[in-house]
């Protein structure tokens, strides 16, 4: 069986897992002050709807939602124009090395690819933000839409970090791939936003395929269907007894939504 390993990363620490820092205001310098932030600042106390404390520092209760699992997963934008075909075959050309590298290790594959998937929304939102400032005009809601997409993809990563542990060379690969992809996408967006969005749309179609294969491996028992990480249960408002399969289902639905937007 392919292993699914638990790992705790600093970025997904809950508010309950507090850190101790030196209290510089103390006379003897030996006292400790408990803080719940990387910056050493105590955040406001947030509670759930039932009044219990909210334990996550990477998102808030009002940023959670229930994924639409009824979304059409088979929808495909047939490439017609030159830009469509360029975007389509660019994505298809990237599929082969990805399959060769990750094989059927879908847990690590999902986690590693989400480090890239969260880039386009941030790049597009940033460039549209600057354009809005330069032209003194509204964005039509696209800035927030793209930044929300980037945040959603980042939460996919925060989730899969809890169930998969990357190898050292996979971590190194993140630096290389993200650096190349960020700059390439930035230039592509400057040259043609439509091309850039088409690339993302076709990338999301491939993501849907990958998560469908992930589900098949879970159903066959090749990958252990472990309990869903707590962060996923709170973010997607899943039942307390949800499993990794339920998480993959909602992530796949998210990717289908991003496909349609782009």
From TrEMBL:
Subcellular location: Mitochondrion inner membrane
Membrane topology of this protein: Multi-pass membrane protein
Cofactor note text: Binds 2 iron ions per subunit.
InterPro entries according to UniProt: AOX (IPR002680), AOX_sf (IPR038659)
GO terms of biological process kind: alternative respiration
Catalytic reaction list: 2 a ubiquinol + O2 = 2 a ubiquinone + 2 H2O
Enzyme class: oxidoreductase
Keywords: Electron transport, Iron, Membrane, Metal-binding, Mitochondrion, Mitochondrion inner membrane, Oxidoreductase, Respiratory chain, Transit peptide, Transmembrane, Transmembrane helix, Transport
EC number: 1.10.3.11
Pfam families documented for this protein: AOX (PF01786)
GO molecular function, one term: superoxide-generating NADPH oxidase activity
GO cellular component labels: mitochondrial inner membrane; respiratory chain complex
Reported cofactor(s): Fe cation
Superkingdom, natural source: Eukaryota
Subunit structure of this chain's protein: Homodimer; disulfide-linked.
UniProt similarity note: Belongs to the alternative oxidase family.
Official protein name in the record: Ubiquinol oxidase
């Amino acid at each position: 069986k392919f292993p699914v390993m638990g790992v705790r990363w600093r970025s997904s620490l809950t508010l309950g897992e507090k850190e101790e820092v030196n209290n510089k205001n103390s006379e003897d310098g030996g006292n400790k002050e408990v803080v719940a932030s990387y910056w050493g600042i105590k955040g406001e106390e947030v509670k759930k709807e039932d009044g219990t404390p909210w334990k996550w520092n990477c998102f808030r209760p009002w940023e959670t939602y229930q994924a639409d699992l009824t979304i059409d997963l088979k929808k495909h934008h047939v490439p017609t124009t030159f830009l469509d075909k360029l975007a389509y075959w660019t994505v298809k050309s990237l599929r082969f090395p990805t399959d060769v590298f990750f094989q059927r290790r879908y847990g690590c594959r999902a986690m590693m690819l989400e480090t890239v998937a969260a880039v386009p929304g941030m790049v597009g939102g940033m460039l549209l933000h600057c354009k809005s400032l330069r032209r003194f005009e509204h964005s039509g809601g696209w800035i927030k839409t793209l930044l929300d997409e980037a945040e959603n993809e980042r939460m996919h990563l925060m989730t899969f970090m809890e169930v998969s542990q990357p190898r050292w060379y996979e971590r190194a690969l993140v630096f290389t791939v993200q650096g190349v992809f960020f700059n390439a996408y930035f230039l592509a967006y400057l040259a043609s936003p439509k091309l850039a969005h088409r690339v993302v749309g076709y990338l999301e179609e491939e993501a849907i395929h990958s998560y469908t294969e992930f589900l098949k491996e879970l159903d066959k028992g090749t990958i252990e269907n472990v309990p869903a990480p707590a962060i996923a249960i709170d973010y997607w408002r899943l039942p307390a007894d949800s499993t990794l399969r339920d998480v993959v289902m909602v992530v796949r639905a998210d990717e289908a939504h991003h496909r349609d937007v782009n």
